[in-house]
Design goal:
heterodimer; A: mainly alpha; 4-stranded mixed β-sheet; 13 helices; 4 strands; B: mainly alpha; Arc Repressor Mutant, subunit A; 2 domains; 3-stranded antiparallel β-sheet
Amino acid sequence: MFWTSWFLAALAIALAWPVPVFLSRAAWPARAPFAAMVLWQSIALAGGLSMIGAMLCWGLVPLGENLASGLHGLALILLGRDSLDTLGLIHAFALSAAALLSAHLVFTLWLTYYRIQRQRSRHRDLLNLLSSPSTDRPDTLVINHQAPVAYCLPGGSRSVTVLSEGLLELLSPEELHAVLLHEQTHLLQRHHLLLWAFAAWRSALPWLPTSKLAQQAVSSLIEIMADDVALRSVDKATLVTAIALVASGSAQLPADTLMADNASQIDTPTTTSARLSKLLAPAPALATGRQVLIIAGALMLLAIPTALLLVPGILA
Amino acid sequence: MATLGDLERAVMDLLWEHQEAITANILRDLLSQRTTDDNAESRPLAVTTVLTVLSRLEKKGLVERERASRPHRYRAVTSREEHTAELMLEVLGSAPDREAVLARFIGTVSPGEAQTLRTLLGRP
């Protein structure tokens, strides 16, 4: 238990700082977005698991040889059949910290979900009043505004894609087709669930480098994945023109439309530049063998802390 | 006028057109006029339906009720333009927690980036 807790602590620190920093600087994720996405998820999950696991194991050291016997000892103390003195103050503190961190993570996940749902529902109410259904496309709404915007609002069977009149005027039918394919991929591949999980991860541990880097990486990876799907049906020049037209148009808005929002731009996403440079200077997709290797590595990363916690006797 | 959603839209359109607060009865008459213009076969609208729609809109924070006189009068909380601005702010804003609410085709673009793109596209 003692060595398990130290090993988990070392893993937690590695996954909180050096590993995400290296991964965020690497160039290969754009060439293997799916594998990179799996890796980021496993870094977040394994990181959280080893953080909680390290404190839990260290707290249980006086009570047993492994997690099961330690938890049994803890149950006896909580039931009042054993004295708290067998645990000691420092170990009791570590156990409380593990419990608090777990509760904090679950609560933040729930809170973020609730906040996102509330904002979506408000947005849907406003859309209902201010937009009209597209005449020729299902599940598509058109808002009467000159800024060229396209986005999708996820919500199960009520998911909609929203286009502005400005966008419809700006783009050719082919370019519009590329935009719609991109947006439908976001909905089909459930990208909003990834964004939710990583937004919660970030608001739970905002001071951790990993949570910020992971959220930025995931936002940019989903755009690359959606672009890749669109490129199966439209040619690259069309998609590049669509991105460039929409991007150059949306920054041209009158100041009163954006109101005071410029002040709140905490970190301007570099996603648009990253997408364009990926499309304009394409690097070949990573070899399948390497992608499989990365995914296997990601699964191993998740398996290590799980095994350390659950299988007795791996480390003393 | 098939769904509640359509009715909410029609009611808000009327409230946005009227500067002063109006009663559910007046709204019903105005709505009936519009439907007969559009479709002669539609059934007349009941005041209770209009009241249901109004209370839904009130719950959503879109309509406020003046209780000083009876029957109560209703008005839109803000103009259509302000609601559009709110909507667009949410779409174009760049706060990190908004990213999860809706997936945009293009994220926030800095003015410099936009200028470069316009130059590349050969547009002013």
